[in-house]
C-alpha cells in the first residue's frame, strides 16, 4: 500500500488531511522520560515556540493538528492561526493530565470534565473529536457511549483513542455500538513500543489487523516513532507497508525536526 501522506480524503462530505501534527511534545507528555522536563521548559511553558513549530509544519504542507484542552497548546495554536496557519482540528476529549501512563488510574481518569472539553474545543470547529485513551481503556462502556453520543450532537465525527490496541480493539467489538464512531487512533510502530505486545510481530500483528478490519473504521496511527527510538525513515516506511492505516499523527519537538520528518514523510 502506498499512502500519499500530504494528501487528504473525502469522508461524508468533509475533506480530511491524512497527516496530523501531534501534541505530545507540546504538552510534555510524561512518557518521554528525561525529555519531558525539556519539553515542559522549551515548549509547554513557551507557547511562542510551539506556535513556531506549528507554522513551520504548516509551511511544509501539514494541514491538521491534534488539540487537547490545554491552555498553552490552545494559545500556541491561536497564535499560529492568527498568523495565517489555520489547520483542520482533531480534538481529544476527556484528557486527564494527572494520570500516570505506567500505572494508570482509570477511576481517577473518569473525574475529568469531558463535557467542558467538548464545549471548549467545539469553538475550533474540529473535524473529529476522539475520546481520550484513559477513558476508553477504563472499559466503562456506558460512559464511553455517553461521550460519543454527545460528540455526535456536534458537527464533528466521533472517534476513540486507545493505549492497548490489541486488547481494547477486541473488547470494542464485543461491547460498543459501532455506529457511534467513525475514527480510531491506535499506537502502531515496528517495535510494538507503548503497545500491549512485547513485539508487534507474528500472530499478534495478524490478530490486531483482523480486528481492525472488523471494526471497519478510519484508523489513525500514533506513536509511530516509538517516542524517538525509531529513525523516521524506518518508522514511516513501516506504517506505509500496512494496508489498514488511513491517517498518521506525528509529534514534533522543534522546527528543524519538523523539516526533517515531514519532508521525509511527504517524499514516501
Quick overview:
The chain is an alpha/beta fold and 268 residues long.
Order of helices and strands: EEEHHEHEHHEHHEHEHEHEH
Number of domains in the coordinates? 1
The global form is globular
Highest-level CATH class: Alpha Beta
- Sheet with the most strands? 8 strands, parallel
Which bin fits the share of residues in helices? 40-55%
Kindly name the structural category: alpha/beta
User: What is the number of E strands?
Assistant: 10
- Average pLDDT over all residues: 94
Give the terminus-to-terminus CA distance.
11 Å
How is the CATH topology named? Answer: TIM Barrel
β-strand percent reads 15-25%
**How do the strands of the widest beta sheet line up side by side?**
3-10-9-8-7-6-5-4
Radius of gyration: 17 Å
Number of helices, where a helix is a run of at least 4 consecutive DSSP H or I residues: 11
CATH A-level architecture: Alpha-Beta Barrel
List the uncertain runs.
none
Q: Any key phrases for this structure?
A:
268 residues, alpha/beta, TIM Barrel, 8-stranded parallel β-sheet, two-stranded antiparallel sheet, 10 strands, globular
Provide structural commentary:
- The protein is globular and about 45 Å long.
- The mean pLDDT is 94.
- It has a single domain, classed as TIM Barrel (Alpha-Beta Barrel), CATH 3.20.20.
- Strand 4 (64-67), helix 3 and strand 5 (88-93) form a beta-alpha-beta unit.
- Helices cover 42% and strands 16% of the residues.
- The strands form two sheets. The chain has an eight-stranded parallel beta sheet with strand order 3-10-9-8-7-6-5-4.
- It is of the alpha/beta class and 268 residues long.
- The chain contains eleven helices and ten strands.
- Helix 2 crosses helix 3 (71-82).
Amino acid at each position: 500500500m502506498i499512502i500519499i501522506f500530504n494528501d487528504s480524503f473525502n469522508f461524508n462530505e468533509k475533506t480530511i488531511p491524512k497527516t496530523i501534527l501531534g501534541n505530545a511534545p507540546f504538552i510534555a507528555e510524561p512518557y518521554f522520560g528525561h525529555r519531558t522536563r525539556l519539553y515542559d521548559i522549551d515548549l509547554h511553558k513557551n507557547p511562542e515556540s510551539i506556535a513556531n513549530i506549528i507554522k513551520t509544519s504548516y509551511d511544509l504542507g501539514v494541514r491538521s493538528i491534534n488539540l487537547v484542552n490545554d491552555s498553552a497548546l490552545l494559545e500556541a495554536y491561536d497564535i499560529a492561526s492568527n498568523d495565517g496557519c489555520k489547520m483542520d482540528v482533531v480534538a481529544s476529549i476527556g484528557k486527564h493530565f494527572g494520570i500516570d501512563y505506567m500505572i494508570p488510574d482509570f477511576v481517577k481518569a473518569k473525574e475529568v470534565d469531558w463535557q467542558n472539553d467538548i464545549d471548549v474545543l467545539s469553538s475550533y470547529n474540529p473535524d473529529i473529536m476522539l475520546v481520550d485513551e484513559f477513558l476508553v481503556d477504563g472499559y466503562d462502556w456506558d460512559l464511553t457511549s455517553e461521550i460519543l453520543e454527545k460528540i455526535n450532537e456536534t458537527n464533528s465525527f466521533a472517534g476513540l483513542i486507545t493505549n492497548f490496541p490489541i486488547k481494547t480493539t477486541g473488547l470494542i467489538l464485543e461491547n460498543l455500538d459501532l455506529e457511534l464512531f467513525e475514527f480510531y487512533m491506535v499506537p502502531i510502530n515496528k517495535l510494538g513500543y507503548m503497545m500491549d505486545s512485547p513485539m508487534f510481530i507474528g500472530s499478534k500483528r495478524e490478530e490486531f489487523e483482523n480486528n481492525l478490519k472488523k471494526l471497519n473504521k478510519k484508523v489513525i496511527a500514533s506513536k509511530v516513532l516509538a517516542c524517538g527510538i525509531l529513525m523516521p525513515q524506518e518508522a514511516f516506511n513501516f506504517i506505509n507497508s500496512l494496508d489498514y492505516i488511513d491517517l498518521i499523527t506525528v509529534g514534533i519537538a522543534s522546527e528543524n525536526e519538523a523539516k526533517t520528518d515531514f519532508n521525509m514523510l511527504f517524499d514516501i
